[in-house]
Specification:
By secondary structure, this protein is α+β, with helices and mostly antiparallel strands. It has a domain of about 120 residues: Trigger factor ribosome-binding domain (Alpha-Beta Plaits), CATH 3.30.70.1050. Strands 6, 7, 8, 9, 10 and 12 form a six-stranded antiparallel β-sheet that branches. It has a four-stranded antiparallel β-sheet with strand order 1-2-3-4. β1 and β2 form a beta hairpin. α1 runs parallel beside α9 and α4 crosses α7. The chain is elongated, with a radius of gyration of 35 Å.
């Protein structure tokens, strides 16, 4: 599986974490924050603020603590098998005696998770690490519960060079794009007919192959000249050939002439020329299910425009992100990169995870987290605010309010940067072919080379001796 392509498809999905504090001037260093969530009020006091560290005093009501104790006891009683008692009917005194400390630890952990989650969402913080400091005492059933925790806040550098980013957009030659798209439809509907002439570019050549050392069994295959289907150099060997043409060839590595690969024999059986369907209404119906050629062109034009617009949006945003990340280097919190990388790998569904996969996932996660944080920092610098009404209208069922706020705020930050960007259109390239007609392909050391008759004879004699 292509790890880069696979991970890239996932890159926008995960929630990277909690929100962000006002990084450029902490408001009310000693403040009291009641916040309502799902009908309940959570209470916390920020009792100390020093550099990027915040010490918070959390408080939970006696009523909530008692409810959690009852919930944990019910679960234990339900799962507990004890002689003399039916499931769910074990007395509280016995449960408390045997499992009292476990119950208190479970309640403490539940309260800690709820209150810290509420804090991070309310204060919109990004943590420098996900392991806050704090000694948590165990709660007592029927009493209010308080504890302190100290958090390290991650501060993204104040972004620079976000105005006037230069973006060059490729021009759209709509007529040319439509014609090329329709031509691609014709290529998919191509047929071939036998011809009595030497083969040329685009022709389908049917061959028989005699593998090295094999004089009887043959393998039948075909190649279309110009597509380099079985390796560089082979198309040239069969260009200009006619049925009955025989030749021998091997694949050579340009790096060395030693240990030459075996020689294979080939015979051309048939040459077929491509036959493209006529551009008429019948073709339009078969290609796209439309009534006529005019309707096909209109449909293709709409599709080309939509695809171009989509690609332009991606191009502009990609240029912006690359530019501001290059101008604002910083290392994001390690736990955010690790969590996102782990999420990418797990969602790829690979049975075994190789080092290449882990490295690619970590690199993509690093870039995605940095993108996420720098756009948040731009939004903070520009004082972009998202209303509760907009969050309510836009939040999906899978999102928290904090993640929905981040998504909407980052989107507005991107739009603001694009509004201030220097966007121009590239000059269209002159039409016409230049240089070689060969398609651009990656350089390869391996290439098919025809074997001369003298070398062919020596190779055949050598193969005969080895068989005997």
């Amino acid at each position: 599986m292509n790890i880069v392509a696979g991970v890239a498809e996932l890159a926008d999905a995960p929630d990277l974490g909690s929100g962000k504090l006002d990084l450029w001037g902490f408001k009310s260093p000693l403040s009291h924050h009641p916040t309502r969530k799902q009908g309940r009020i959570y209470m916390f006091d920020i009792i100390k603020s020093e550099d990027n560290r915040r010490t918070v005093l959390f408080t939970e009501s006696a009523e909530r603590i008692s409810g959690l104790f009852r919930k944990v006891r019910r679960q234990i009683s339900k799962d507990l098998e004890m002689p003399g008692f039916r499931p769910g009917k074990v007395p509280r005194s016995i449960i408390d005696k045997q499992y009292g400390n476990m119950i208190k630890a479970e309640v403490a952990d539940t309260v800690r998770q709820e209150l810290t989650s509420s804090l991070l969402e309310t204060e919109d913080w990004i943590l420098d690490d996900n392991d806050p400091e704090g000694r948590i005492e165990l709660p007592v059933d029927g009493a209010a519960y308080s504890f302190e925790m100290t958090f390290s806040i991650f501060e993204t550098p104040e972004p620079e060079a976000t105005d006037g980013i230069k973006i060059e957009l490729p021009p759209l030659d709509l007529e040319d794009a439509v014609e090329k798209t329709i031509e691609s439809f014709r290529e998919k509907m191509i047929s071939f007919e036998t011809v009595d002439r030497p083969s040329d570019k685009g022709d389908l050549v049917l061959l028989e192959a005699y593998p090295a050392g094999n004089t009887e069994e043959t393998q039948q295959f075909s190649v279309r000249i110009g597509e380099a289907q079985i390796g560089d150099g082979f198309d040239e060997l069969v260009t200009g050939s006619v049925p009955g043409f025989n030749f021998s060839a091997r694949m050579l590595n340009d790096a060395s002439d030693e240990d030459k690969p075996p020689v294979h024999r080939f015979q051309v059986d048939e040459v077929k020329r491509p036959v493209l369907p006529d551009l008429d209404d019948d073709f339009a119906e078969k290609a796209a299910g439309v009534k006529n050629l005019e309707e096909l062109r209109k449909k293709v034009e709409e599709s080309v425009r939509a695809r171009y617009d989509q690609e332009i949006v991606y191009l502009k945003e990609r240029v912006v992100i690359d530019s501001i990340l290059e101008s604002n280097p910083f290392d994001p919190p390690e736990y955010m990169v690790a969590n996102l990388s782990k999420d990418y790998v797990s969602r790829l569904g690979e049975e075994t995870t190789g080092q290449e996969t882990l490295t690619a996932a970590k690199e993509l996660a690093m870039n995605k987290v940095r993108e996420y944080l720098i756009l948040r920092a731009v939004a903070e610098k520009e004082e972009i605010e998202i209303t509760d009404e907009l969050i309510a209208d836009s939040k999906s069922s899978e999102e928290t309010e904090s993640s929905a706020r981040d998504r909407l705020r980052n989107r507005k930050a991107m739009e603001l940067i694009l509004d201030r960007a220097d966007i121009t259109e590239k000059k269209p390239k002159k039409s016409g072919k230049t240089g070689s007609d060969k398609e651009d392909r990656p350089d390869s050391q391996w290439r098919w080379v025809q074997v001369k008759d003298e070398e062919k004879k020596i190779c055949e004699e050598k193969a005969g001796k080895e068989e005997s």
